[in-house]
From TrEMBL:
One of its GO terms (molecular function) is zinc ion binding. The keyword Zinc-finger applies. It holds the Pfam family Zn_ribbon_ZPR1. Residues 35-118 form the Zinc finger ZPR1-type domain. One of its GO terms (cellular component) is nucleus. It comes from the Eukaryota. This is Zinc finger ZPR1-type domain-containing protein. Keywords: Metal-binding, Zinc, Zinc-finger. Belongs to the ZPR1 family. The lineage of its organism: Eukaryota, Viridiplantae, Streptophyta, Embryophyta, Tracheophyta.
Length: 120
């Protein structure tokens, strides 16, 4: 997907989190460390990946996986500075096209989402 500004690619956070938590390419993550599994008490692995979302800010994706109980957890934390200008996005969905609402949204702590009218 392309951004509306300077043609920058927008990061698919869901796919990036799956790449970090998967068994795939070892060079995909920035850092990995052993961590305590809150489910079984054994050690698992937490992988970290830093990435930038254009016109938003830098984020750190964290993916935990326990080989003992198969617990998995993905988390997004914000890093870096907030962009100097805010934006407003308005989404109008045509009637009968509810699948357009099936989206993953990454927002900062200070952002808000308002749904003014929804009818199915």
């Amino acid at each position: 997907m392309m951004g509306s500004g300077g043609g920058e690619t927008i990061v698919d956070v869901g796919a990036a989190a799956e790449a970090v938590s998967g068994e795939g390419e070892a060079s995909a993550f920035l850092y990995a460390t052993e961590s305590l599994c809150m489910r079984c008490g054994e050690n698992g692995t937490t992988r970290f990946l830093a990435t930038r979302i254009p016109h938003f800010r830098e984020i750190v994706l964290m993916a935990f996986e326990c080989p003992h109980c198969n617990e998995r957890n993905n988390e997004v934390q914000f890093a870096g500075a907030i962009q100097p200008r805010g934006c407003r996005y308005t989404l109008t969905v045509p009637s009968g096209d509810a699948k357009v609402l099936n989206r993953q949204v990454v927002k900062s702590e200070s952002a808000s989402i308002k749904v003014l009218c929804i009818v199915f």
